[in-house]
Amino acid sequence: WLEYVSWLEKKYNRKLVDFKFRCKGDLYNPYKTSAVFIDGYKIIDNNKTASYNQLFLKKYIIQRRCYKCQFKKEERYGDFTIGDFWGIESVMPELSENKGVSFVMTNNSKANHLISMISKSENLLLSECKSKLYLNYQSNLTGNSKIPVKYISFWNDYEKRGFGYCIKKYADGGAIGNCRYLIKKYSRRIRNTMIK
After folding, report:
1. What's the predicted TM-score (pTM) here?
2. Is the pLDDT confidence value at 61 over 80?
3. Coil, strand, or helix at residue 81?
4. Phi and psi at residue 42, in whole multiples of 5°?
5. How far is the CA of 77 from the CAs of 3, 30, 80, in angstroms?
6. What is the pLDDT of residue 159?
7. If pLDDT is split at 50, 70 and 90, which confidence band does 99 have?
8. Of 62, 103, 118, 151, which cross-links 85 as Cys (Cβ 3.0–4.6 Å)?
């Protein structure tokens, strides 16, 4: 992360003061990123701000031990399990608004009590999922992720050639990636206008 921040600051010749990985996007791009620099200059969703997310989502920058995590199962040790409700459109389509829905799983009686207290809030829509279909979409509750095919080559390149090389090769951090990213961005914009 620190190397990415340094790389981004060099690209824009400004000090980064805020970064958001998931600004609310749209149906075709839920992962909009945003970078804010000390002078107020702000970038929303370009190939450079999205590069770190790409490395993460491709699972290249996840530590190797995470692929053998003993906690990736439905039985949990904490009071709550909180994350994105992947598959909401299939499991509970009445709640799917393409704005993102959080998944909250209570793991003991203490958590059940807290949820019952929270559910009285007028600012919160809470709905119980009675189906186990959510397990089809919450892969970290059913087992570990598989190591990506290029995981080893990514880390070999990182050791030999550095972060700047890897962000160009494995994400969209370079000029070619910029072209690819712009094509995706404008095709998403066209699809969005066609839906409206």
Report:
1. 0.73
2. yes
3. strand
4. -130, 135
5. 33, 30, 8
6. 96
7. low
8. 103
Evaluated on CA atoms 116, 118, 121, 127, the torsion sign reads negative
The phi and psi torsions of 22 (rounded to 5 degrees) equal -140, 75
Q: DSSP assignment of 163-190, as one string?
A: HHHHHHHHSS-SHHHHHHHHHHHHHHHH
Nearest to 106 by CA among 70, 74, 69: 74
Q: Which of 156, 176, 148 minimizes the C-alpha distance to 51?
A: 176
Rounded Cα distance between 195 and 34, Å, is 25
For residues 139 and 124, what is the distance between their CA atoms, to the nearest angstrom? Answer: 26
24-32 mean pLDDT: 66
Query: Which residues make Cβ contacts (< 8 Å) with residue 41, sequence separation at least 6?
Result: 12, 14
pLDDT of residue 153: 95
Is the pLDDT assigned to residue 17 strictly greater than 90? yes
Tokens 């002078």 correspond to what residue? Answer: 39
Q: CB–CB of 80/104 below 8 Å?
A: yes
Output the average pLDDT for the chain: 84
